[in-house]
């Protein structure tokens, strides 16, 4: 019976992940890369657990969403509430407060109002945006929680939303 | 047939200007500016640039520090290391990783309208009229008393033209019956 070749003979350095995602830990601010296919990971600096749920919203959502993955609002979709995510792409309508630990893209059909903090921001020609924004290379690290045990961050949460901001005139 | 090369105004890193500056072409600013800055073309603010006040441009490429309200008809790009604090009105915006922005962003078809409402066109015109009258009084005083300290430099072509246009009839007016016939 022929022996199966060791994986190191096929991949001298081991299999490399095809796509990487850059992550900033919300607890300590450490920036690191993980595989695009990773579902969860622990921060190499502070060992906080992070979960990645990539979402595409195609309908109306009124509530809070928290994940370290990529959240995309498709063209007819609408979201009202608070959003915490790793990356955010808006092609629909967003109203509320968004805390993004990566890139924010507001496409030409999007309508965005409220508050936004992120690492980088691109607003395409044709987008309608009226926001209070804070863009900085290093997102503010969260203060340490009272309990010593790390709390899971990035779990997908949906709560009823409050209207945070006034609508556009 | 090639088009004539577009001129570009460059203010070096040693340059410090306060007041109002209007340019009808592209510009690069490397020094410090405080006041109202109007550039019809593309304005590039280098890493050493420090600007505060109000910026009204076609396109803004920023790598320096700005604490101002910005109105850009076409686009704004914040390069790595750039810092912008203030209100921003434009139709296209790109803040790359490494840049810092803090303030209000208004983007869209009604952004320019919102900008004019926010800055108050009427108030601005009044302020310009006040500035013109103050310049007029300063110039007449300078003619009479010859101040030792020169007045701060104001480089605003439109305002200067307006002042000259107002001064011409005054100069040509006959004094004590003796004047230059027009």
Report a brief summary of the structure:
The complex is a heterodimer of chains A (169) and B (182). By secondary structure, chain A is mainly beta.
SSE inventory with pairings:
The complex is a heterodimer of chains A (169) and B (182).
Chain A: H1 7-10, E1 20-24, E2 31-35, E3 40-42, E4 49-51, E5 55-57, E6 60-62, E7 65-66, E8 70-73, E9 78-85, E10 87-90, E11 93-100, E12 103-106, E13 111-118, E14 120-123, E15 128-135
Chain B: E1 8-11, E2 16-23, E3 26-29, E4 32-45, E5 50-62, E6 65-78, E7 83-85, E8 88-90, E9 93-95, E10 100-107, H1 111-119, H2 121-145, H3 157-172
Parallel strand pairs in B: 1-3, 2-4, 3-4, 4-5, 5-6, 6-7, 6-8, 6-9, 7-10, 8-10
Percent helix of chain B, as a range, is 25-40%
Number of strands of chain A: 15
Structural class of chain A: mainly beta
- The tally of helices of chain A reads 1
N-to-C SSE string of chain A, H for helix and E for strand: HEEEEEEEEEEEEEEE
- Specify which chain pair forms the largest interface: A-B, 20 and 23 residues
Mean pLDDT of chain A: 79
First-last Cα distance of chain B: 46 Å
SSE pattern of chain B, N- to C-terminal: EEEEEEEEEEHHH
Largest sheet of chain B: 10 strands, parallel
Strand portion of chain A: 35-45%
**How many structural domains can be distinguished in the coordinates of chain B?**
2
Radius of gyration of chain A: 19 Å
- The low-confidence runs of chain A, each spanning 5 or more residues with pLDDT under 50, are 143-154, 160-169
Number of strands of chain B: 10
Helix content of chain A: under 10%
Shape of chain A: elongated
Biggest beta-sheet profile of chain A: 6 strands, parallel
Structural class of chain B: alpha/beta
Task: Report the mean per-residue pLDDT of chain B as an integer.
Answer: 76
Number of helices of chain B: 3
């Amino acid at each position: 019976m022929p022996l199966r070749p060791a994986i190191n003979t096929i991949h001298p350095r081991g299999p490399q992940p095809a796509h990487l995602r850059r992550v900033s830990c919300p607890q300590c601010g450490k920036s690191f890369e993980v595989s695009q296919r990773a579902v969860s990971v622990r921060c190499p600096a502070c060992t906080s657990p992070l979960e990645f749920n990539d979402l595409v919203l195609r309908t109306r959502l009124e509530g809070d969403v928290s994940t370290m993955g990529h959240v995309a609002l498709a063209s007819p979709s609408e979201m009202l509430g608070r959003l915490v995510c790793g990356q955010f792409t808006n092609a629909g309508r967003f109203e509320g407060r968004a805390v993004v630990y990566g890139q924010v893209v507001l496409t030409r059909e999007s309508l965005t109002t409220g508050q936004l903090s992120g690492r980088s921001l691109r607003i395409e020609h044709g987008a309608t945006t009226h926001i209070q924004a804070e863009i900085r290379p290093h997102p503010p690290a969260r203060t340490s929680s009272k309990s010593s045990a790390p709390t899971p961050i990035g779990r997908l949460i949906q709560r009823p939303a409050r209207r945070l901001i006034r609508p556009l005139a | 047939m090639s088009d004539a090369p577009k001129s570009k105004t460059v203010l070096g890193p040693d340059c410090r200007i306060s007041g109002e500056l209007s340019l009808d072409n592209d510009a690069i600013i490397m020094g410090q500016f405080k006041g109202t800055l109007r550039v019809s073309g593309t304005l590039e603010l280098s890493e050493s640039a420090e600007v505060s006040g109000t910026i009204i441009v076609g396109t803004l490429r920023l790598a320096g520090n700005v604490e101002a309200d910005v109105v850009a008809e076409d686009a704004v790009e914040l390069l790595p290391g750039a810092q912008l604090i203030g209100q921003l009105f434009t139709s296209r915006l790109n803040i790359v990783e490494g840049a810092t922005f803090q303030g209000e962003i208004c983007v869209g078809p009604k952004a320019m309208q919102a900008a004019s409402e926010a800055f108050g066109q009427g108030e601005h015109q009044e302020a310009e009229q006040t500035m013109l009258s103050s310049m007029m009084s300063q110039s007449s005083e300078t003619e009479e008393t010859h101040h030792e300290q020169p007045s701060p430099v104001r480089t605003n072509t439109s305002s200067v033209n307006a002042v000259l246009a107002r001064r011409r009839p005054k100069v040509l007016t006959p004094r004590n019956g003796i004047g230059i016939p027009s």
